[in-house]
Amino acid sequence: ETGEEGQSSVEDAEQQTIRAKQEEESANEVSQAETRLTVNINNTAYTVSSGQEFADAVSEKFTSLADITSVEFMSGTVTEDDLGYFKTNKSKLTGLQTLKINLDSDLTFEGGTVLPDSIFNVTSGLKSLTTVEIAGFTEIGASALKINALTSISMPDVKVIGTSAFSGCKNLTSVDLKNVESIGDKAFEKT
Which of 145, 135, 183, 191 lies closest to 165, judged by CA? Predict the structure, then answer.
């Protein structure tokens, strides 16, 4: 009887181990499926879950928005609301220096490849934001990047720049226009 009981308990232990592995794999799959967006903030990766707002994810991690110096959207789908967060919190994001939204096979924007009108029309807000990278976008909407502190913008795929897109960016010193085919009225007024 001892042999059968010993064999039975070994089989039970094996079954428990198999079940535990299956549960862990299942939990990992659910966790991965629930991630809507991965964002690198101050060189640390954070995830935004499906159904969660970018703003909520940031507020869970940072008590002071002034501590945020860099934001890079890494993978998933960026929404217009995600980008609107920067405009809404322009007076609180006083330390933000770099913003990167480089669309590729891992990162998409719900609006396709057009950066929406007025999305970063913050004029005097975001006082430290000097560098913006926006690869993968083919069009910059009207008044989309009116950021006074902006000194450098990398936009290698942009073909169309909307009306007043960079108007008032008085510190802008570096813009690559090699692929641009159309520039709207007053796109660089007061720069």
Answer: 145
Rounded-to-integer distance, Cα 59 and Cα 33, Å: 22
Residues 6+ positions from 93 with CB-CB distance below 8 Å: 65, 66, 68, 86, 125, 126, 129
Half-sphere exposure of 64 (CA within 13 A, CB side): 5
Give residue-wise pLDDT tens across range 104-117.
999 999 999 999 99
Half-sphere exposure of 121 (CA within 13 A, CB side): 16
65 secondary structure, DSSP code:
G
How many whole angstroms separate alpha carbon 45 and alpha carbon 2?
A: 53
Residue 10's H or E segment, with its range, is helix 2-34
Please check whether residue 105 is in contact with residue 127, taking contact to mean a CB–CB distance below 8 angstroms: no
pTM: 0.79
At residue 131, what is the residue type? T
Residue reference for tokens 């936009």? 155
Reference 154, options 72, 44, 40; nearest CA is 72
What does the pLDDT look like over 69-96, one tens digit per residue?
999 999 999 999 999 999 999 999 999 9
Q: List CB contacts of 125: < 8 A, sequence separation 6 or more.
A: 87, 90, 91, 93, 147
Q: By three-state DSSP, how is residue 152 classified? A: strand
For residue 114, the 8-state DSSP code is E
How far apart CA 75 and CA 177 sit, in angstroms, is 26
